[in-house]
Amino acid sequence: MGYKDQIDLSKLPKHVAIIMDGNGRWAKEKGKLRIFGHHSGVNSVRAVVEGAVDLKVQYLTLYTFSTENWNRPKLEVMAIMELMVSTIHKEIGNFMEKNVRLQAIGDLEMLPQKCYNELMNAIDKTSANTGLVLTLALSYSSRREILSAVKSIAGKVQRGELKIEDIDEEIFEENLFTKGMPNPELMIRTSGEYRISNYLLWQIAYAELYFTSKLWPDFRKEDFFEAILDYQKRERRFGMTSEQVN
Ligand code: IPE
Ligand code: IPE
Ligand code: MG
User: Fold this and answer.
1) Is 21 a catalytic residue?
2) Distance between CA atoms of 245 and 239, rounded to whole angstroms?
3) 110 FRET partner, CA 20 to 30 A, in 73, 75, 186, 228?
4) Are residues 105 and 137 in contact, defined by beta-carbon separation less than 8 angstroms?
5) Is 230 a catalytic residue?
6) Contacts from 221-226 at CB under 8 Å and sequence distance 24+?
């Protein structure tokens, strides 16, 4: 029996976040340039999107490029941006067919103009789709996101639109890039690294973490289903006792 058949469809996570890591090492293992790994990683993205659509997961958020990734060699950064432009362009038809709505979070104005335009075009074209919400974290830093929320809240207080004592978790979340989205119940990281690397720090407070040694270009639908199955075996206690949640 495949992993998919064992998944309890009534207990799906609403939101799965993924740190897609290991493209460079995958390419290196094959004696190729790092960018070859990024290209191959696109196939994994397609597979995981398909898997999420199959299961009717509502939100999938992919860590595609971090703010820190701007510090990589210029050639690699440029190649990733080019890859993004061509991939987004090619995938629009697929998104329409699968009823996927594309979104992006991060400092998007830092993206090269061509990349930004292609992204906005795809977001616009898919905006009426009602299936999976696919969010790309691009030029994304969770700490920056939190700081920008703090600044926007401080501005509201300064202008007298909000009282300090009224600031609560709900208001804070409304000022994050992920506004309107549920927090991820499951966070997956590939490539055997056990860290979060500045991803959705506020949002993953109670997420189940799933780590796999598979490198991102080797990750497929079955691996995605396996992670969801593993998630379903966990007991989420939210600070309570096992007896209380059962
Ligand atoms: C993830 O793979 C893709 C991006 C961060 C853009 P890496 O490029 O980080 O691959 P490794 O971790 O060096 O193997
Ligand atoms: C995290 O991977 C960012 C993305 C997957 C886009 P990195 O490879 O950049 O993270 P570190 O350097 O291992 O923490
Ligand atoms: Mg990496």
Assistant:
1) yes
2) 10
3) 186
4) yes
5) no
6) 221/4, 221/47, 221/48, 221/50, 221/51, 221/54, 222/2, 222/3, 222/4, 224/16, 224/47, 224/48, 224/51, 224/52, 224/188, 225/2, 225/3, 225/4, 225/7, 225/51, 225/55, 226/3
Domain hosting residue 94, numbered range = 12-140+184-233
pTM above 0.85, yes or no: yes
Give a yes or no: residue 151 inside a domain.
Answer: no
pLDDT at 1: 79
Q: Is residue 242 part of a domain?
A: no
Residue 83 CA, ligand 1 centroid: distance in Å:
14
Tell which atom from ligand 1 comes closest to the C-alpha of 26.
Answer: 14
- Any idea what DSSP says for residue 183? P
Residue 116: which pLDDT band, with cuts at 50, 70 and 90?
very high
**Minimum-distance ligand 1 atom for the alpha carbon of 20:** 1
Condensed to tens digits (0 to 9), the pLDDT of residues 26-51 reads: 999 999 999 999 999 999 999 999 99
Alpha carbon 17 to chain centroid, angstroms: 4
- Of the residues 18, 19, 21, which should be mutated to test ligand 2's pocket, given the most ligand atoms within 8 Å of the CB? 21
Q: What is the pLDDT of residue 170?
A: 98
pLDDT digits (tens, 9 = 90+) for 156-180: 999 999 999 999 999 999 999 999 9
Please indicate whether residue 70, judged by its CB atom, sits closer than 6 Å to ligand 2: no
Count structural domains, the chain.
1
